[in-house]
């Protein structure tokens, strides 16, 4: 990419959620116009149920008359003066490269897919570490140039302390549980709130917990699904980011579902991770707004 | 349709389920070959889990050297001699026109769709009666040339007795609950077992019971669905015939889901009803085999 | 619906397309804020390829400090003063009920579906007339309370003159070719430009013209589709509004495709018509922006 | 896997196509029953258009009273005595491990996906070699333990001679063009007929040839697709194995389509390759029967 192209592709992205009231759109639009900002993407949502307003706006960095820090200072003043105190907002700079840590067990499909996407530049982030509780994915990970950390889970408490130490050393923007198969302790759910992303191999809220494909087989459903969600202390109950399904039929055994389900788990997790890294997701209560 | 075409399109259809053992396929194939039958569709399924075998075979009626009654007698002899006593089988003749009764409340979408399909000849059956607990769909039904029976539900027990009387007078092949919104009493579930087909407006087993779209909205799912199933005494727990989903997002209110969900309810019910009428569904325990 | 609810649901909707430049969003947002408008939906698109900007904004009518005519006058002044002369915009009032005329031949599925949706209030419009070149759908149409006009096509030129007279008498917001099977003459394509909507039973640009399902069968494709598009003088080449597909396989004959294809034609046309009537579609050159 | 499990999972698979006539099913079923064969999968198709009959039957190897060679000899005798001389059939043994060679250029997504599936045992075959015309995928390939052969394409004729030499040395069951971007010369199309599988990044027959996503963008379609097909001498016109699509909208640039299209290319190719390796595809003329 030439320097010119890179500069043209750099974005400042504002995401904001606040109690809805007339004039918010105008205030934000006026603010951006005053800074000379050329808007490349703008999305809005007014939620009737919660009476909350959400927006995401991406602007060309090279059109703005100041840097990201100054823009943040200016927006903070505007927010303090004119927005509801419960307002939550972020201003991010695509030039500040994000970091991802991936937690895995033995299943390789989501990990290989994420490593491949990162290698192709599909994710605006670097995978800086992979932590696994088995060594089976170590060599594979390292062949993509990513460090692999083996943390055996003989002693669960000690193991999670070690996992947390490795993760927190990187202060990552996303901690991705790519079929990690271990339930995060409540303190880590709290500490990584809004950053820990899990893939569950069912269409939630159906088939919470263990062996969801076997549950699906027993019930005789005609579609199986996968759900990408933020991790919270309650198992498989966090805000849903993305879901999808594939068709099965009576000829599919649980083993067939496991195999076919991998494809949908892989895609659903990849979409969720990308949206998170592109600041497309706003969490409000137990639900998400996704400006995809 | 010319007589010749009609004759060429007439089918005898065998459906059979039995404990699996070597040689069943050969015995059935030999039987059909001996009768001179030209097979136009044949489907098989061996279920590893239950060790049960299922098949559906359609043959050109004009290729068989006898009528449907004689063919049934012959097959009964074969089954008695060579098949497991638990074997269940049917032999149907497409020239014997099937009958459908539809139960409705106020929602028109599934009813209009089924009436339209019957009018176009998409269903191998006649809709012989519609029973409604409100009069709002009466004129519409009759404009398609189908009798409408109003049964108010002030007294639920009396009402169901009246519904049952109307339905049973026709001895229909299918009783379709097209958003009927009333829970069938256990005795009718039993009497109409394997013939009563319901459409539930969620992707079961998620969101059983009332107001599933509101439940879906509250949980923040990213897809909503519909499920067509045989009615059993346990609410929304009967053998699933067909399911499908559509994508929603944060901007969809429960009212939007109700509107969009109609499209998927309509399609899923129509598929289930057609497969049932074409003898494509074999029920085994709490699950279905669908040879679509 | 109570008067209060009705008032709360009334919307003024602005759609606008213009050459892109910095500050447009702010000017529009400022304009709406000055009028006291409570924005309920806002969507934007900047097209890199044409360097054109598009927006659609819906506001609560009861929040605006004037009526629709005055709002139009004010916006016209703003546009004249501050927007590029090529700017195209509309301001519509959901209280001004729209009108639809449907053109049909013998196939009933799209017509029944649209009549059903209009009956349920899913479309913000009335179907004011149906014109058919066969009488087979007349009784059906009238059972929904809609006038049916039979125009035989023995003399194509005279027939189209008659069709045009019936249509133009209503000055409809949409002329829907619901499997009309007649090619509109160029002068009507021109006169009804941006208002005439067709459903073609293939996934365009594959299988233009006659018997697309037979073309699809001959090629051996694994999906068949339908395309809703604005009618232009070049056959099946108008701006595409919506498309969708369904899966088929080797066992599906052209007749099976015709039957299954109806479901997707019906849905795709219904979506396109609804979006058109809700002012969600902006045409630019040979393409559409759809703010669904 | 224990030896017992492995033995239970071993299959002999018969695929057959012949002119349709009464009694074929019975002859095959009788043949298998005589050999003691326990059928685990059976699929049939009678093609009305060509009047051709197709079947695929998988039986447990450990249920058959002879080995694969003797079974082939017996079936050859049956076919010679009782089947039409145009009959084409194969009998394969899942214990005879298949071989795949993959041809690539610079794009990594299909290759990584296939290597991942082979590693997980999802494909009943080994990827024995990857041939690339750039070196960018060499290290990645070798990290999966697969040899990579760099063949620069400065001299196209010499390059294809070298590619053919590498491929033919392995006598592979499938030659997979995983976004190879080079058009096979006619002699290789002929030599590898029925074994060379390509992925084209459009929903054929739309957008044949170069830069299909840019063609799709220019036309303004609302879905983009991918097509897996056998390679023939006419570009992008071989028998279609599998297709699928994903939804796009006006906000997607050609670059966005390229990125999103990768997901569907990957899945469609993977399905096609697996079906081919599992003997699920019968080619007849320009079309395929896929018993998936």
Secondary structure layout plus pairing:
4 copies of one chain form a homotetramer.
Chain A: H1 3-9, E1 11-19, H2 24-34, E2 39-47, E3 52-60, H3 68-82, E4 88-93, E5 98-104, H4 109-120, E6 125-132, H5 138-143, E7 148-150, H6 156-170, E8 174-177, H7 186-191, E9 196-200, H8 212-219, E10 223-230, E11 240-247, H9 254-277, E12 281-284, E13 287-290
Helix pairs in contact in A: 4-9, 8-9
Explain how this protein is built:
4 copies of one chain form a homotetramer. Chain A is α/β, with parallel strands linked by helices. The first copy, chain A, folds into 2 domains: 3-93, Alpha-Beta Plaits, CATH 3.30.70; 98-290, Rossmann fold, CATH 3.40.50.170. Chain A is 36% helix and 29% strand. The first copy, chain A, has 9 helices and 13 strands. Chain A has helices at 3-9, 24-34, 68-82, 109-120, 138-143, 156-170, 186-191, 212-219, 254-277; strands spanning 11-19, 39-47, 52-60, 88-93, 98-104, 125-132, 148-150, 174-177, 196-200, 223-230, 240-247, 281-284, 287-290. Chain A has a 7-stranded mixed beta sheet with strand order 7-6-5-8-9-10-11, sandwiched between helices. In chain A, helix 5 links the parallel strand 6 and strand 7. Chain A is globular. The mean pLDDT of chain A is 95. The interface between A and B is medium-sized, with 33 and 33 residues.
């Amino acid at each position: 990419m030439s320097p010119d192209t890179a500069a043209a592709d750099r974005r400042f992205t504002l995401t904001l959620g606040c109690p809805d009231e007339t004039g918010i759109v105008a205030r934000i639009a006026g603010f951006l116009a005053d800074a000379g900002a050329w808007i490349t993407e703008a999305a809005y949502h007014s939620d009737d149920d919660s009476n909350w307003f959400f927006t995401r706006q991406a602007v060309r960095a090279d059109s703005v008359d100041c840097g990201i820090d100054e823009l943040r200072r200016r927006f903070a003043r505007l927010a303090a003066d004119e927005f509801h105190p419960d307002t939550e907002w972020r201003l991010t700079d695509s030039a500040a490269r994000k970091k991802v840590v991936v937690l895995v067990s033995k299943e390789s499909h989501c990990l290989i897919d994420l490593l491949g996407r990162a290698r192709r530049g599909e994710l605006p982030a670097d995978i800086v570490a992979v932590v696994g509780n088995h060594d089976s994915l170590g060599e594979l990970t390292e062949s993509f140039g990513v460090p692999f950390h083996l943390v055996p889970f003989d002693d669960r408490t000690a193991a999670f302390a070690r996992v947390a130490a490795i993760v927190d050393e990187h202060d990552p923007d996303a901690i991705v549980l790519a079929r990690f198969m271990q339930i995060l302790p409540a303190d880590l759910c709290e500490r990584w709130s809004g950053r820990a992303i899990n893939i569950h191999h069912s269409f939630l809220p159906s088939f919470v917990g263990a062996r969801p494909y076997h549950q699906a087989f027993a019930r005789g459903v005609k579609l199986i699904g996968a759900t990408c969600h933020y991790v919270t202390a309650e198992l498989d109950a966090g805000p849903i980011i993305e879901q999808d399904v594939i068709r099965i039929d009576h000829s599919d055994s649980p083993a067939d579902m496991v195999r076919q389900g991998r494809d949908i788990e892989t895609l659903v997790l990849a979409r969720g991770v990308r949206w998170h890294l592109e600041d497309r997701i706003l969490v409000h209560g137990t639900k998400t707004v996704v400006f995809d």
